[in-house]
Design goal:
This protein has six helices and 37 strands. The chain is mainly beta. The longest helix has 22 residues, at 2-23.
């Protein structure tokens, strides 16, 4: 079947290529406009790998490209950076300052190379509640980092109202950095993905709203990117009239309104999927899973179609050359996941500062010679002798810093927040929500004017109960340091129970998923624990077949845990076949007791 499918794909691709050669022009199926594109090129090794290579984004002069990639043996996507020099791309570098142990995807680097946006599901991201049957729903938030002195700062969530419990992905910025564009959709509802925009005001991206038709069509619309040279935007969509899956389009923008979008034609768009476009002068970079890919998705380049190239150019095209981190150790592309260290120039070592807002240097009407201070996470750690400090934007805010009482290290942990207008412990709260500190132990609360007290209760098993009442200081910023301690007695209270299976099957029954998620949450709260998963079979059938099905059952449970984000190395999988029955009698009720998976934890 795979050979037949491949032959069909090759035949279809050959017809498209033959049509382009015979007629030299291609007719756009959506607008009947003649779209000519030349030089469709797979950028090849070392950028493209045998895995998935997605979402290229380049600076204005095309000298730097960031993208996300996942090799076949990797669980998560990571962001890499590569440099164009001497007519070739360098071996991609793992961006150690950007990536986490979770997924980092759809990066966008500004034309000046100073700001990096991306989507991630790392701890600290806003997540929807679990499903009715206990399944955890994972969504993505947008994060931001800055190139300061040749070093990328620690990423933080984009300030403002952009991130929600839905998916926020594929961010981009207008050339003046005052408008943030991104895609948003509900959990597992990418078909209704919406193209959104948010405006920069008081150093936060607010006024979030959907973009109008024809940009949004309710057909998998995503990845809106402003053109660097032309009045308009590129986007990907699966709207009717395309050539395959996702197609790439251009939407002109003039005098405050959008024109009908233009399909980039069947030389850019194939019978497969094309997504995530970045424009450099008259060259387009995008990813596709078309025939000719080294892996599943590869990065390609193509000329900008002539019809789009002829559009009026902006009066002041971006020509800023970014300051590029230097001294990077270049490793083989197939070993991109290996640790890559960025060496800073000796004469200019930069501190790892984490801005909370877009550096305003590009937004000021005029420049000054005064050195500009960039706020960082270090600014919010203030000694206990200074309980509150003036807030420059006059907003009430509380910065919380959480540490583990045994190790003294920052701790990512969940709290239930009660917003109240009295210090009476028995009084009902005005509002409640749940917050989780980030990997550095911090999170922020912004009480509204009707809140005078914030009560925090620890909401995570494995730790001793804790309640912290904080009086709100209107118009000021207050720092709160919280120390939590593991509850050793509680850690031993979790009871592992067997999971049972149907006859001759490794299929996990629906009723066991809520219990499996209790195990998942327990393991997340105790990262040092490992789990031995042992599969068993009943005493009917041959010894060899019973051994095989016992291994399959253990692996099915292990694979589900890994799918939910736990590392495979935390599990030891073993099959016992029929050798350890809990019931030695024969019969249906006894066989069901033997068809099981058992758990035992160890450190």
């Amino acid at each position: 079947m795979r050979i037949v499918s491949l032959m069909k794909k090759l035949y279809r691709s050959s017809l498209l290529a033959l049509g382009a050669i015979l007629f030299c022009v291609v007719i756009d199926s959506t607008n009947a406009a003649m779209i000519r594109v030349r030089n469709i090129i797979n950028v090849g090794d070392p950028v493209n790998s045998m895995g998935d290579d997605f979402s290229p984004s380049l600076v204005a002069d095309g000298s730097v490209m960031v993208f996300n990639s996942r090799l076949p043996d990797e669980e998560d996507h990571n962001i890499y950076i590569t440099y164009f020099s001497g007519g070739a791309w360098s071996k991609p570098q793992f961006m150690e300052q950007i990536n986490s142990a979770y997924n980092e995807e759809t990066p966008y680097i500004t034309p000046d190379g100073k700001v990096l946006l991306f989507a991630s599901d790392r701890p600290g991201s806003m997540q929807p509640s679990v499903t009715a049957d206990g399944n955890v729903r994972i969504t993505y938030d947008i994060y931001i980092s800055y190139n300061i002195g040749g070093r990328w700062t620690k990423p933080v969530p984009v300030p403002g109202d952009v991130n929600t419990t839905r998916n926020e992905r594929s961010p981009s910025l207008s050339l003046d950095k005052k408008t943030l564009f991104f895609s948003r959709w509900r959990f597992r509802n990418i078909r209704n993905s919406k193209l959104m925009q948010a405006s920069l005001r008081d150093n936060e991206y607010v006024d979030v709203r959907e973009l109008p038709y024809p940009l949004n069509s309710d057909n998998f619309d995503m990845a809106l990117t402003p053109s660097q040279r032309r009045p308009g935007f590129y986007l990907a969509s699966r709207r009717p009239g395309g050539y395959g899956g996702w197609d790439l389009y251009f939407a002109g923008y003039k005098d405050g309104s959008f024109s009908e979008i233009i399909n980039l034609g069947p030389e850019v768009n194939s019978a497969d999927n094309e997504l995530f476009l970045s424009e450099v002068d008259n060259t387009l970079y995008f990813c596709s899973d078309r025939i000719g890919s080294l892996g599943r998705y590869d990065i390609f380049s193509a000329s900008v179609p002539g019809e789009i190239r002829r559009l009026d150019l902006p009066k002041t095209p971006v020509t800023v050359k970014p300051e590029i981190p230097s001294g990077m150790d270049k490793k083989d592309a197939i070993d991109k996941k290996a640790e890559a260290k960025i060496t800073e120039p000796d004469e200019k070592k930069a501190e790892d500062k984490t801005p909370a807002v877009i550096p305003p240097e590009d937004l000021k009407p005029e420049k000054t010679d005064k050195e500009e201070k960039i706020p960082s996470t270090a600014d919010i750690i203030i000694p206990d002798s200074k309980p509150s400090v003036p807030c420059t934007d006059n907003r009430t805010r509380i910065h919380v810093y959480v540490t583990d009482g045994e190790t003294g290290k920052p701790l990512s942990i969940r709290f239930r927040i009660y917003l109240k207008n009295t210090d009476d412990p028995g009084a009902a709260p005005i509002r409640t929500n749940v917050r989780k500190s980030e990997m550095d132990g911090t999170f922020r609360i912004f009480p509204k004017g009707d809140v005078s007290w914030v009560v925090m209760k620890l909401d995570q098993e494995g730790y001793k109960p804790l309640r912290e009442a904080i009086e709100v200081a209107p118009g000021r910023m207050k720092e709160v340091k919280i120390t939590v301690y593991p509850d050793r007695d509680q850690n031993m209270k979790f009871l592992f129970k067997p999971v049972y299976f149907p006859f001759n099957s490794s299929h996990i029954r629906l009723e066991y998923y809520p219990y499996l998620h209790k195990i998942i949450n327990y393991l997340r709260e105790h990262p040092s624990l490992r789990l031995r998963i042992t599969g068993h079979a009943d005493i009917t059938g041959s010894e060899s077949s019973n051994y095989r099905i016992s291994v399959k059952r253990a692996r099915a449970v292990r694979d589900y845990f890994v799918k939910m984000g736990l590392h495979q190395k935390r599990f030891d999988v073993k099959g016992m076949g029929e050798r350890q029955p809990v019931a030695t009698q024969r019969g249906r009720e006894f066989d069901e007791l033997n068809r099981r998976v058992e758990f035992k934890y160890y450190k």
